[in-house]
Amino acid sequence: MMAGDLLTLPLDELVVVACNALKEKDLPRLRELNTAFHHRFFHELRRGNEASRTEFIRGMLAVLESAGAKQLEHLEELPELLTRWAHLDELMDAVRGDVDAVERAREFLGSREHGNALLHQVTEAGAQGIRAGDLAQRLGISPQNLAKLLREFEAADIVERHRVGKNTYVCLGLTGQLLAGRQEPDQPREIPRFPPSSPVYFPVNCQPRDLWSVQ
After folding, report:
1. Using one digit for the tens of pLDDT, what is the confidence trace for 4-32?
2. Which residues of the chain have pLDDT under 70?
3. Per-residue three-class SS string for the chain
């Protein structure tokens, strides 16, 4: 099965693939599954309902509580991956329970000058992000003021910064991606897909920029 096929598998089949990969310690396949589970997570947030989100939670729990997962808890790379999957499960449970951190983040955006404009510019830039210098220019503010704004937005997981060579790029954090997915609810937006070679920032009890997806 090709990596791209995982994105279209029904959830119950995806769970079986994940449990088998854990049992066989198939790290390349688990990296691909990491992408697939994130893809499914955002799909459920945008298009799911209470029943499908509950199914997602149960499926993730089946993976996390499988014998293969418990046998691999002592390895260095896999516990981090499993922790991220557990966090996906917790976030989906929060969404299902109507604990809406996204709405609180939206209020935070509205309370900051240039907040909504910043979110729009970073969203339009796509997965690769936008250069900080270009962002400051488009917002009409100084690099110093942008840096202060970005620190606040990073703390709320709305945006993240990463360096490419000498340039700093700004992209959406997890909360920012959720906000962007609700910007135009009546207009279809492509479900985010993260190729295995691209970084996927995911916060687990630390700053979101500190964690990268399994490469």
Report:
1. 678 888 888 988 999 898 888 888 888 88
2. 1-4, 72-79, 94-101, 182-215
3. CCHHHHHHCCHHHHHHHHHHHHHCCCHHHHHHHHHHHHHHHHHHHHHCCHHHHHHHHHHHHHHHCCHHHHHCCCCCHHHHHHHHHHHHHHHHHHHHCCCCHHHHHHHHHHCCCCHHHHHHHHHHHCCCCEEHHHHHHHHCCCHHHHHHHHHHHHHCCCEEEEEECCEEEEEECHHHHHHHHCCCCCCCCCCCCCCCCCCCCCCCCCCHHHCCCCC
Tell the CATH topology of 101-183: Arc Repressor Mutant, subunit A (1.10.10)
Backbone phi and psi for residue 168, each to the nearest 5 degrees, phi listed first: -100, 130
What is the rounded distance in angstroms from the CA atom of residue 149 to the CA atom of residue 136? 10
pTM of the model: 0.43
